[in-house]
Structures are given as structure tokens and as C-alpha cells.
Amino acid sequence: MPKPNTKFELDVEDLDLIETALHKAKRDQDIDKRRIHDLLGRLHNQKVFFRPRGTYVGG
């Protein structure tokens, strides 16, 4: 039995396109919005946000 592919070669633009499409599908279609919402949450949790090193002064 074949194994699923666990290595994906997606760049930031690909993920942005997928995220945008999911947001539109969630808003426009009559589909399982809970699953789309959960998937968008998992995508969000995998993002690495930039934070400068050293002392950070927000504002």
C-alpha cells in the first residue's frame, strides 16, 4: 500500500492563495464551515511571525 506524501514544497505565495481560497469558500459556499475554520486555524498556528532580536519596543 502506498504511503502518503509527507513532504510538501509550497512557498509563502502558495499558502497565501490557499488561505484566501479557504476564506472565500467559508464565506460563499454552503459547505462544512467548521472544517474550513479548523484548517485555517492550523495554517495560522504553523506560521512563524517575525520578531526582532534584542529589546523590542512596541507601539
TrEMBL record:
It comes from the Bacteria. It comes from Boseongicola aestuarii. This is Uncharacterized protein.
